[in-house]
Amino acid sequence: PGEPMNVLLMAYGTPYRQEEIEPYYTDIRRGRPPSPELLAELAERYHLIGRSPLSEITYAQAVRLEAALNATLPLYPQPFQSSPGPRVRGPARVYLGTKHWHPFIAEAVQAMAQDGVKQAVGIVAAPHFSSRSIAEYREKVEKALAELGHPFRFRLVEAYPDHPGYIQALAHRVLEQVWRLREPGRALFLFTAHSIPEKSAQDGVYQAQVRTTAERVAQKLGLAHWDTAWQSAGRTPEPWIGPDVNERLEEAAAQGYQEVVVTAVGFPSDHLEVFYDLDYEAQNTAARLGLRLLRTRSLNADPDYIEVLRDLVVREWNAFE
Ligand code: FEC
Fold it and tell me: Model confidence over 3-52: pLDDT tens digits?
């Protein structure tokens, strides 16, 4: 009783400055520095998009989630049956930890321990479970907790591929693109998520969750033609799950589609892999194929997505016995 609702919001992290690209990339590669060619190629991708807005968006999500948790009035008309609010109406505190750059997850856990946190809920700004995403966030929290002698109890929201508010928020944005189509009934709707190596995806959980999200959105909008595809596969020789979004666009052109709407359901926020991989690379592929490609805008720190995070966090907090 009286314990504030402590939340650890986690996301991928991005370098703030150009000179941080190398150590960031080294962290992603688990401490192995990239070759000069790989580094130059990544720096060029950042250069082409200007810079990634991921850190600002993640920060805005944390600030707004904290405000939503502390609000006594709902900030947004509820599109779904949402949870009533914190059981203990103390001040809620949201800490921010990112996987591959500052503030690192371990730094956030340390700050929480210093503040005397006894119990906390974690949530990742990524809706689908995979051994290369949510599982790694959990490992990082658990390692930091173990190093500090387990200062607080921790529960993690594992995944939310079919949360009704999340589906509603996506459907709302896909609909904005439907309005722009010349022939909505003849367009292909592609729902993408980050590819992962095949060997990390053998249980099929990740693919099934992404499929569920796509299916729910398609059902809600009554989309006639839709599919899932994978994007942003890493630059490694091992096989990654496919089809890659660019391959799927080739296939779409061969199938006679003229308009395609792509929605990156695996990422709530705008960042390098939306602005480069979709808006630059996939757009170039589409142009080459004579396809009209429209990209659905991201959820970012918009109130409907914040309400989804709030609902999930409150439910998880209430699951502490
Ligand atoms: O805007 C930005 O600066 C950061 C964008 C960014 C997001 C992101 C999300 C995910 N990743 C996932 C898996 C992998 C695996 C590897 C990998 C590599 C990279 C590289 C960059 C990068 N990722 Fe990422 N990812 C983002 C950025 N990612 C840069 C390194 C260059 C490259 O390969 O393109 C391969 C690691 C290895 O080499 O061992 C695997 C997954 C997600 C979605 C879930 C999440 O957000 O956590 C899964 C955003």
Answer: 789 999 999 999 999 999 999 999 999 999 999 999 999 999 999 999 99
- Looking at the CA of residue 54, tell me the nearest atom of ligand 1: 1
The residue length of the chain stands at: 321
Contacts 24+ apart (CB under 8 A), 150-153: 151/112, 151/113, 151/117, 152/6, 152/112, 152/113, 152/117, 152/118, 152/119, 152/120, 153/118, 153/119, 153/120, 153/320
Q: Which atom of ligand 1 is nearest to the CA of 45?
A: 29
Q: What one-letter code names the amino acid at 112?
A: M
Nearest to 171 by CA among 26, 308, 2, 314: 308
Compute φ and ψ for 216, nearest 5 degrees. -65, -40
Compute the distance between CA of residue 83 and CA of residue 79 in angstroms, rounded to an integer: 12
**CA end-to-end span of the chain, whole Å?**
12
Cα distances (Å, whole numbers) of residue 95 to 44, 106, 230, 239: 32, 11, 31, 36
Phi, psi of 101 (to 5 degrees): -155, 175
Nearest Cα to Cα of residue 134 among 114, 95, 92, 105: 105
Ligand 1: list residues with CB < 6 Å: 12, 14, 25, 28-29, 42, 52, 54, 126, 130, 132-133, 194, 196, 234-236, 266-267, 271-273
How many angstroms separate the Cα of 209 from the Cα of each of 194, 216, 307?
Answer: 12, 11, 21
Region class of 149: left (phi > 0), else alpha (psi between -120 and 50), else beta: left
Instruction: Measure the CA–CA gap between 108 and 58, rounded to whole angstroms.
Output: 14
Note the pTM of the prediction, 2 decimals. 0.95
The whole-angstrom distance between residue 150's C-alpha and the CA centroid of its chain comes to 28
Nearest-atom number in ligand 1 for the CA of 15 is 3
Phi-psi sector, 192: left (phi>0), alpha (psi -120 to 50), beta = beta
